[in-house]
Amino acid sequence: MRIVAADVVVTSPGRNFVTLKLTTDEGLTGLGDATLNGREQAVVAYLREHVVPLLLGTDPHRIEDTWQSLYRGAYWRRGPVTMAAIAAVDVALWDLKAKVAGLPLYQLLGGASRERVRTYGHANGRDVPELLDSVRARRAEGYQAVRVQTGVPGLQTVYGVHTGEAIARPTHRALPLVEDWDTPAYLRHLPTVLEAVRHEFGPELPLLHDAHHRLTPVQAAKLGKDVERYDLFWLEDCTPAENQEGFRTVRRHTTTPLAVGEVFNAVVDYQTLITEQLIDYARSAVTHFGGISPLKKLFDFAAMYQVKSAVHGPEDISPVGTAAAIHLDLAIHNFGIQEYSGHTDLTNEVFRHAYTFTDGHLHPGDAPGIGVEFDEELAAAHPYEAAYLPVNRLADGTVHDW
Ligand code: KDG
Ligand code: MG
Predict the structure, then answer these.
(1) What is the number of domains present in the chain?
(2) Domain annotation covers residue 391
(3) What is the 3-state secondary structure (H, E, C) of 228-289?
(4) Across residues 135-158, what is the average pLDDT?
(5) Which domain covers residue 339, as residue numbers?
């Protein structure tokens, strides 16, 4: 079997998604997600100009060899654009291999290690009453674990809070939305929010919170300590993790569980964090980490240190990337939780998928491959729209981590 076509399609059924479709001489197709929020066209060019010519005529069964040749053969290592492009190829090849076998992908990854995959959903509000309503709404949808984000008094727009032009949804306009940030105000406010949520919903509901890379290690350590009594399932991205050693300070001071990794794209990014057991959950996405092959290796490595999986699953991962994650989640032993925001009805029409969401849990379904069909005609009716993620500034105008 040979690859005879490799098409890269950008569609925007509400937001942009980049999809790679590989076709074989036997007429089989495999899909991969290459969406890099706010930088989509860079991955499109990387795939079309540099990767597709290398794939045509090759044997799609040679997944590891293809991965290694795209990674090592480029000489230039890592980076989100490269790794999103390689991820799309890797997932499309796994999709093809599983279709040839006539099996859902999780069967090729070792088979099911559980019946279904626990998820968490996103609750948010500009203030506490709005947040409490949002938690109620997520619970009514079936979620059994909830991430809570609120506005901060004195700030106009804060990460994770829908204010019309919402969270990780890029705004379709020429320049990024500018948000504001004040770390001391946030550190004072968050414990009062968690107090209100625990008071309303009791001690059992698993609660998560995302600090979105905004704190220094010592600020993160203080926050972790201050919120210990609210028993978070995790505190996410409490400090920028390129400085892996920074987590030593956080870990030394708090028993609040820590989750990190959505902006990482290689196993080595986690080396200190995992070998020193500085985190509890590894949060990379199939789509940004080079695909299923390296993410499986990461989780096997993490398992030796009792670190669990928590695959990144916001709206900006397409249903193709989501499906790939659910197959992996079902198969690995050290599964922790899966982030799941769901997609709009239109997105789910463009990407018809076999995975299902019931009682806060996902199942990949038993269709051969990853179980996603791409409606290219509908995709073409919703072309690319230029979009940026927001940027963050302090009161004096200094750019801060978003
Ligand atoms: O594109 C950026 C988003 O994927 C990110 O901001 C979402 O932090 C995020 C999360 O935890 O889902
Ligand atoms: Mg996050």
Answers:
(1) 2
(2) no
(3) HHHCCCEEECCCCCCCCCHHHHHHHHCCCCEEECCCCCCHHHHHHHHHCCCCCEECCCHHHC
(4) 97
(5) 108-369
